[in-house]
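Here is an idea for our session: we take a single protein and study its fold together. Which protein we use is up to you, so please pick one and set it down. Once you have written the record down, we can walk along the chain together:
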Amino acid sequence: MEEKKYLKWYNKVGYGSGDVAGNVVYAFLSSFVMLYLTNTVGLNAGIVGTLIALSKLFDGVTDIFFGSMIDKTHTRMGKAKPWMLYGYIGCAVTLIGIFAIPESLGKTAQYAWFFIAYSLLNAVFYTANNIAYSALTALITKNSKERVEMGSYRFIFAFSTSLLIQSVTIKFVEIMGGGAAGWRTVAIIYAIIGLVVNTISALSVKELPEEELNDGVDNSADEKYSLVEAAKLLFANKYYIMICVTYILQQIYSAMLNMGIYYMMYVLLNEDLFPVFSWAINIPLIIALLITPSLVAKWQGLYKLNVTGYAIGTIGRGLVIVAAYMHSVPLMLAFTAVAAFGMGPWQGDMNAVIANCSEYTYLTKGKRVDGTMYSCTSLGIKLGGGLGTAITGWLLAFSKFDQNLTTQPASCISMLHIMYLWVPFAICIIITFIMSRMNVEKANKELVSGRRLNG
């Protein structure tokens, strides 16, 4: 029996465009905040890394808090859309704040300014916006194919935006006057673009009535759970933990590749290669995302596709290392593209996997926690991305990186090889193993079959 369809093409495109807004924040921040802070503001990479790590202490609590609040929200717009809309206003303001650190402040005050703005952006505003945006996958359709398509549209926009930001930002800053003023102007422009697109995205979809989401069952009593109870529901679900760990590792992986700007500047001695490598990553990802819905249908599910894809990605990253030590930039680009293509299907169907994960909690615990379940997306982005950036700061400082030197010491060059080549490869191996254990589709089918037999 064919599943009921809920969405038109423009609903899917409108929803997906929301990741333009998300990535003018995330891609800009993860790719360039360390470069801005070290080479423009003149802050110490190690101290910045420590501040970022400290701010992550707030993230886990706020993720579960906002996820729980979304589950308990009832408005005419729905449960998630208000949080998505209003959360982004704070994102825009704090993004500008991070890239507008006053030059007149003393160093201690500059560190404090960054820490406050960065913590507010990640722990509060981005959390509210991103969890709400991700939760819409489960709130605007019950059709599994449409959920995969939404994920594909979403990440096509995400990687296209990342590609654009990574390709143009350095030159854009120069066009805007360079230095601190250039970074500030670019941040303002990106924030305005994000605010407009986020609003359009939220208004392009409509949440389903709660009665339809719950199959006519009144679950209002089930929504009355505390923050602690919400956390227990999440961590009792082994698939939620697997997705969280995978997402965190993915973002650390991305943070390491985003620090490729240092690798291009000081190892390959050509910073203009950074956007070229961004193309080698993002174009294959976009191609993979375009074909993911058909691949899911052909493979009759998500599990085998995700495991096989990440195995290909791992092999690709291993070959990038070989090419790097052969001093062949063309081969590095080719194998980077192979790795990115292999990782693409997971990016496209991840939201559908999370929806299945939420269904697993419902089948085992009898409680709907869709908003809280999608906390893993925000938690992964913020904790993984933040830790990745923090780790790069610590490693740069440990390796004696000096932003005032054109040629870095041998210790720094060795560390850049580790950060850009070996760490991403190791992360891919770990994620592939986790993927091999993440068959939530099979678990749900067995639970449903068991209910029918017992019913």
Notes: Residues 17-204+224-450 form a domain with the Growth Hormone; Chain: A; fold (CATH 1.20.1250.20). The chain has one domain: 17-204+224-450. The chain has a mean pLDDT of 87.
